[in-house]
Amino acid sequence: MPKPLFRRSELIAAVQEYHRGNGGVDGKADLTTATKRALSNMARDGAIESTGVPGIWRWLVAPDPLAEAPTGLDPEDDSEELDVAEDAIEEGEGSGSVYAYYFPGYKKLADLKGDVRWPIKIGMTSLSRASIRITDQQRTVMPEEPVVAYVRRTDTPLKLERLMQAVLFYRGQQIEDAPGTEWFNSNPNEVREIVGWIFQSSGDKAWES
Q1: What element of type H or E holds 193?
Q2: For the chain, how many helices (H) and strands (E)?
């Protein structure tokens, strides 16, 4: 099946439409420059490729960085798995998954202030069960045990992760002073709505083929 094509201008327009339709206002950022940078990163990661025609790109099956990893656990592996919360939103099918987790203290602070959003990390794993492994070194810098609140299984987790992060970036919800680029001011329900919009606007699972 031929890989679907898309125009950069259509991507910008679609994200702007979603942003405005959900109460967002236009910012001062140069969206064309930001989109070019995002597309370059996605091409580097194997999610898309250039067609040779300026402004037109082709979707690819996202690479699976753990495809050749052993199915069992390394006995010398000092990492631990984070448990998915009992009330977490879990949906979809596929060989991998994207997830959202947060620290309970951030949510409690947001509740006290009456805010509906708080810092949430958007990530991906090649495992459908969304087992999120962290090392002892990572755990030492965590203020508390994080809560995995959203899991969306898919065969192209990297591609979906990039799109989710792009939408939140365009909405001005990326946390600039956070370690890494995967932290956003959001909430599990909003994350789920963004995923639903991505699949609906791209023909459900057609883009995963």
Answers
A1: helix 188-201
A2: 6, 10
* pLDDT tens, per residue, the chain with 209 residues: 566 788 888 877 777 776 666 656 666 566 777 788 788 877 887 778 888 887 888 888 544 443 333 334 343 444 455 666 777 888 998 888 888 989 889 999 999 999 999 999 998 877 655 455 544 444 445 667 788 899 998 888 889 999 999 999 999 999 987 766 789 999 999 999 999 999 887 655 544 54
* CA distance linking residue 63 with residue 60, whole number of Å: 9
| DSSP 8-state code for residue 208 | G
* Residue 102 near residue 149 (C-beta atoms within 8 A): yes
Residue pointed to by tokens 């990893």 = 69
98: which 2 tokens? Answer: 């994207």
Residues facing residue 151 across a β-bridge? 90, 99
Contact 153, 128 (CB under 8 A): yes
**pTM assigned to the model:** 0.57
Of 107, 95, 104, 9, the residue nearest 57 (C-alpha):
9
Asked if residue 186 lies in contact with residue 173, where contact means CB atoms within 8 angstroms, the answer is yes
Two tokens at 14? 């679609």
Q: Comparing C-alpha atoms, which of 151, 132, 154, 157 is closest to residue 64?
A: 157
